Amino acid sequence: MSEEILRALMQLFAIIAKQDDGSGDSERNFVRSFLSFQLNKTKSEEYLALYDNYLTEDKVVKGIEGDDEVPTTKKRKRTSVSDSVRTLTICIKINKTLAQKQKVIVLVRLYELLKANNSFTESRIDIINTAAEGFNISEEEKRVAEVFFTQVAIPDDIAQHFVVINDFAGQASKANHIRSEGLDGEIVTIRFPSVNLLFTNYTGINELQINGIPVDRKIVYLLAPGSTIRVPRGTIYYSDIVEQFLSTNEHNKISFVVENLQYKFPGGKIGLRDINFSESHSALVGIMGASGAGKTTLLNVLSGIEKPSGGNIRINGQDVTYDKSQIKGLIGYISQDDLLIEELTVYQNLYINAQLCFKDKSPEELKTVVLKTLEDLGLLETKDIIVGNALNKKISGGQRKRLNIALDLIREPAILFVDEPTSGLSSRDSENVMDLLKELSLKGNLIFVVIHQPSSDIFKMFDKICVLDVGGYNIYYGNPVEAVMYFKKAANHVNCDIGECELCGNVNPELIFNILESQEVDEYGNYTGNRKVQPEEWHSAFKANIKLPDFKEVKEKIVNSFKIPGVIKQLFVFIKRDILSKIGNKQYLLINLIEAPALAMLLSFVIRYTSRVKGAEYVFRDNDNIPAYIFMCVIVMLFIGLTVSAEEIYKDRKILKRERFLNLSPFAYYLSKVKILFVITAIQSLLFVLIGNYIIELKGMTMQCWFMLFTVGCCANVIGLNISSAFNSAVTIYILIPLLIIPQLILGGAMFTFDKLNASIGGGSGVPAIASTMPSRWAYEGLMVQQFRYNNYEEPFFEFDKSISQVNNKMTYYIPELVQIATDALRLSKEKDAKSQEEFKEKITIIKNELTREARTNKEVVFNDMAFLTPKKFTNITFENLNNHFVRLNRYYNFQFIRYDIKRNLKLSGFVDSKEGQERFQRVKNKYSNEYLEDVVRKEYVKNKYIIENGCLNQQLDPIYINPPKQYISYNIHFFSPYKYLLGKEISTFWFNTVVIWFISLILFILLYFEVLKKTLNLFNKH
Amino acid sequence: MKNFTRFGIYLLMPLFVVFIACSGDEEKFVEKKESVDTLPAKVKPDISAEVINNIIMSIPSPLEMATMLKDNGQGYDANLLNPSTNLIKYNTNYKIAFNIGVYSADLGYINIYEKTFSAMSYLQNIKQLGDDIHIGQFFDFETLKRLATNTKNYDSLIFISTDNFNKMDAHLRTQNRNELSVLMISGAWLEGVNIACQVAKLKPNKELTERLGFEKINLDNILVILNAYKNDKYFAQIVTEFEKLKQIYSKIEISYQYVEPETKEVNGQLVIVNKSKSTVNITEAQLKEIIEEIARVRNVMIN
Q1: A822 lies in which domain range?
Q2: Do residues A703 and A605 share a domain?
Q3: Does the beta-carbon distance from A924 to B26 stay under 8 Å?
Q4: Rg of chain B over CA atoms, in angstroms?
């Protein structure tokens, strides 16, 4: 109590005492005992002198007045008025310095003074009324105090503020009642609801103890949270009394039952063993224990994050582990982690969270709830400050912690688990936080708190504590103050039945751990490192000595105070949250917007090759680097896409852990991520294409380029999200990126052509299966084919060029090759050795296969002797026939060739028949076509124009001109195919490939949704 | 949410504008109304393929002329050649074929002077043009690479150059694309004569002058086969130009003296020695005229 309060009190005491000339000894004795209870002897003498001083001062005034010989009644009245004025002055002064709680205490002390000699005279009451008014204490509460002190019958209208404890079964008044057998007289407790203070007074003759201190009947005790009252038979706890006050409020009945709980770590080590307890609503339970005892593990198991390996946990009969859907949203979990979104303000953090919790509330209502919560937590002034992170602090650690707690507090889950809410906080902040939790528990919620080194006040706030010892043994469960006594007793300490300090009322929870961990001493007095009492022994002692009270399990369903919004609404909230946080992070925004154009500029500027002769101008056609440029675009986009998304889920994982208790839709969450990333990617790819293509002068396919890069970027986004959700450190994730990008480089088809890969992975004339899983390969092929086929120069001629290439290759390479094979076959047919015969068979097979294939497309020139194309029937005559057939084929193709050639030439001549046309032709050719790109898609420099694969002669040259086989969906066809089949229809390679990449993305999204990668990794971790 | 929308619009609008701006400014070919379907019949020569082949065979390969130039003692001059930059001007089959001939003659000239580096570049030009009319397959990339890295290989370079020219020519004829073959030969002839003319202009020499005079015969032969295709516009153009050349040549007389061939024994074998002799009368002025006209025609044809 501060000097100022005391001074004010002394003044008020003096004013009241002197009323009716009654400043007798009894009042002075009360003041003396009151002071000695609060202060040491010298100090109390000092204040008593002050009291006397005020008293005599008043008397002097009165003495002067007395000389005037005014009638006493009048005089008294006047004095009363002047006293009232003085009282008010003091009250106003006090109002400025004291909190409401303290003012209530002052008021109670004033009543106590009256009670000291039972002189509740009118004028004294008047003064108190004036003081109460001055203190802004409500009429109702003032009446409660009055009734309490005058000990008249309790009126019905304020009966709910009383708790009467006595030995009667029934109760005359409507006041709350607790029966305590064998109690003489009554223990009356009142509560000031506005400040939540409890005062108690005993009227009987029993030797009661409050917190281990004998009760003086004359004194009104302030019943602090966590107090215990020792009655003849048993103990009455603070929480029992509070519950009475609150029982009139409606709240859920909760029963939380833990039976034979066991938990094994993945490694096989036992984390928790044989834990049994039950708890009902309106309780604040502390979980304590030495570090490593398994406190957080217990919290995780209780909250259902970890599965117990034995026993069960039931909430109103529903198993926490297995009936998850039944207990949806009942549980809240406040971990030690910081779950705030750095870039948002305090208000936004809470508001968005509230949006996810309350479906039915309008924005206005939500705003009110959020502001109310912030006010309750003392965060109202900071509401528009950005949260920041631990390094870049904007709000204090205590505020962060409170805000973290607020996230869960706002929805008031029926059962709340809190992991070390006070760690790292100042004692002031710690107390604030614990007050909040206490208040919530008083509202009917059940709260479990892991706590480490609590202060005495905090320790006493708990209704129950659960003490764990190393190895996961439960060695105590019950009242906190009694816990100290229990352990003191067990360790044979003196005065073991006193839990708290008689003078200051402090409890030292440290004592418990000192006792637990006291070590054996050897004969030289050195500590041996062995504990005196092993955890197992404590555990069995606990089981033997403390009998947990019988518990009636409630089965009725708990009504949820909140409703989560639908998936669509969640999606919007998630998106909003992400956008807000992204916009809040200026650096992130800037880097993401600049990254793509900067890279595009770098890439295209560096490779904007100009021939160094004769100061030549830049000619797109002559730029060697176009295929590489296209490939690099794809790779850059993959890279950007991956890096943008790689940390997306990882950085949210703590938030996700918490939100799991809200039962929010993972689909909405992932979709929100995907949507935002896709928008970012769309912007990035657009910037990239616009700048890159502008500098490199790649014209006429901006839209296609953008769409393909966007597609690839999106695919990379989803890949990134997958790794982001599966791996548990940022470093791992970023190390993985090259691991994902480099295969894209190797198997993209640009750096290493597929016909020149290790034979064991496939390739040849087709694409290795492994390469087909690479988005880079599809994107590169799509863009290359699109550029080649649809550029303004090639487009008019493509069909001719294709036909000409087909027939020309038949004439120049294919037929001569077949002739060669036939000749070899004839030669080999004459040889007798096994090897030659084997080769002979092969050659015949090739000829047969090829002629069959040829017959499928060519109905004009038919080979009639197919039946003779077997090793046995192959003779000189067959050979002659074959040769004749080849000659006819050649002639046929020659005819075709000339036809197409003339057509093409005619069209060409049409374009170049004038000087102007000639110039335009050259311009278009230089601007739109690229020689090196043509070389790549036509495989100009391939060594073997045809290769023998699986008994067939497959064309290597001019892949861009080879018609793919008609399939329902083009599958396993050559690289750079001019078009493909999708659902039986011809579709350009570009669109086909985009469809493939989107399909890959879709599959990846499904994998993401089902967390396949994460689960697979967990599987590895287990073994 | 409204703010986001507005933010999005501010962000995307400029991008969209740029996007639209970029997608414009395109240049395309202007398609002629006459449809490709109304395909005119392939130009048919008036004379038989056999005759054409015989005439083509009689025209000397571009290398022959070049050999004479080097014997003349004249140094290498790259300015005489058709520059590589002209490559892009050759689009239509006919123009391509003609200029394959031109470049082949240039290549012959380069080869004689063993300028391997330039030779590679011209070989590339020929291959590129060859590819355009689908006769590029004779240029094996591997061989070209080998030649390029080993400068001592100029003998085989000469061989390959000549061989490829002949192969292309032969291939065209087996493919019934004689007209292209004719153009190739004509091109090679024109370029060969032009180089010789330019050398003669700088350093006149009797042997060279006579040789240029004798080209009258080759020109006549070439004109015979060119005339066979003159229904075609391009051929008609060449014929017109070459006819002008012919007019100048017509003033030159070639006399032929027949002498009975005699037999004599060389190294124990009987050899028939041709004693007949052709002589050409060509004046200084005529030569000058020829040089100018050849250069003019060549200039028309390569551009």
Answers
A1: 795-928
A2: yes
A3: no
A4: 26
Checking if the pLDDT of A14 tops 60, the result is yes
pLDDT higher than threshold 60 for residue B23? no
Is the residue at A311 inside a domain? no
Task: Assess if residue A296 is contained within a domain.
Answer: no
Structure letter (DSSP) for residue A810 = I
Name the domain boundary from A355, A384, A412.
A412
Is A716 found in the same domain as A599? yes
Does the CB of B141 have a partner CB in chain A at under 8 Å? Answer: yes
- Residue-wise pLDDT for B279-288, tens only, equals 888 888 888 8
Does the CB of B20 have a partner CB in chain A at under 8 Å?
Answer: no
Query: Using 50, 70 and 90 to split pLDDT, how confident is the model at A832?
Result: confident
Which one of B9, B43, B175 would you mutate to disrupt binding with A, by most A Cβ within 10 Å of its Cβ? B175
pLDDT value for A1003: 95
Q: Which residues pair with A521 in a beta bridge?
A: A527
Could A911 and B29 be called an inter-chain contact, meaning their C-beta atoms sit closer than 8 Å?
Answer: yes
B42 touches chain A (CB under 8 A): yes
Among A961, A956, A960, A959, residue whose Cα is nearest residue A942: A956
pTM comes to 0.78
- Among candidate residues A757, A790, A823, the one where a domain is terminated: A790
Q: Are residues A669 and A698 in the same domain?
A: yes
Q: Domain count of chain A?
A: 4
Distance CA A728, CA A461 (A): 37
Who contacts A522 (Cβ-Cβ below 8 Å, separation ≥6)? A528
Rg (CA), chain A: 45
**Residues B148, B145: Cα–Cα separation, whole Å:** 5
| Same-domain status, A766 and A870 | no
Same domain, A874 and A842: yes
- Residue A10 scores a pLDDT above 90: no
pLDDT more than 90, % of chain B: 10
What ipTM was predicted for this assembly? 0.82
Is the same domain home to A350 and A372? yes
At B63, is the pLDDT very low, low, confident or very high (cuts 50, 70, 90)? low
Contact A977/A961 with Cβ under 8 angstroms? Answer: no
The pLDDT of residue A249 is 55
Residue A661: inside a domain: yes
DSSP string covering A26-37, please?
A: HHHHHHHHHHHH
Return the minimum-mean-pLDDT range out of A173-182, A196-205, B108-117: A173-182
Question: Which of A909, A926, A942 to mutate to probe the B interface, most B CBs <10 Å?
Answer: A909
